[in-house]
């Protein structure tokens, strides 16, 4: 379940909220911006206490996608879908299929302004179901000629971002011997853990799913009980699960030199970036760090390069982050403000080009 947060400011172009006619589930499709092109953002299947929590997540995540896609240099806007499960609900195969058919109808209603993809709780096979109702979906299974699972590219981008962050706080990008805490061992967090372990990092890991202890044992990593991981000394704290985990209380107790991870919106409040800075903790903006998957999906869908070339573009996220750190230091602002400035410049340029096209 997610942390309950207030609804964010409404700055969106369009939001579709439906009760799926087949599944009976709450579904929200949030189009935040199409200034730079058709919006791209995944479909999240998750448990929320209240439908307002699901709606708020869709609004926050779609706005973050606008920043992510703009900062990554993509000609894509920001959007997100959320399918809400009530607490205690488990979908059987028939109702799960019904949910993603319903999502496909909702996506189709935006007439191409938004493209969906897999996200937390959904899979490439689910996207294949969505494709029965709309063409505006990316990341279909490899078996049908799609681009497949984007967790690998996302993990690569996080890895390169982690190296850039370590370089800034320790003087070396080498992960060997560095203490790294990974909070969340899903598709991306587990891939990152395996790679860091192989390169000699001292891993501390945790997950709300106790079965993930098996991976910790396999990697020789230290297991932290959920809710205590931020108290363990580390060079880098990697939020890799749900959003909103960096509350004021967690930030004040956090024992790390830096924060760099793939979780969307890990800051419970925007002001958390300033709070981290006051404590001398470097913050790598999440929408820069976790952009590898969306870069991969967008460029693959548009056939803009070979897979090798696209993965090189993903790996360059580390260099983008280094430029953001430099800009933040030069201007005397947080890396979050510097990254938001980079995205704002691209969005402003896109808006001007749109005005010229209409003139």
Order of helices and strands: EEEEHEHEHHEHEHEEHEHEHHHHH
Sheet of most strands: 6 strands, parallel
Q: Report the structural category.
A: alpha/beta
Helix share of residues? 40-55%
Q: Which term fits the overall shape?
A: globular
Number of strands: 12
Instruction: Give me the side-by-side strand order of the main sheet.
Output: 9-8-7-10-11-12
Low-confidence stretches: none
What does this structure look like?
The chain has 359 residues and is an alpha/beta fold. Helices cover 44% and strands 15% of the residues. The chain contains 13 helices and 12 strands. The chain has helices at 51-71, 93-108, 124-130, 151-170, 187-198, 213-219, 248-253, 272-278, 286-289, 292-301, 307-315, 317-331, 335-358; strands spanning 14-19, 26-33, 39-40, 43-47, 78-85, 114-115, 179-183, 202-206, 222-223, 234-239, 256-259, 282-283. It has a 6-stranded parallel β-sheet, sandwiched between helices. A 4-stranded mixed β-sheet has the order 1-2-5-4, sandwiched between helices. Strands 3-6 form a two-stranded parallel ribbon. Strand 7 (179-183), helix 5 and strand 8 form a beta-alpha-beta unit. Helix 2 (93-108) packs across helix 3 (124-130). The termini are far apart.
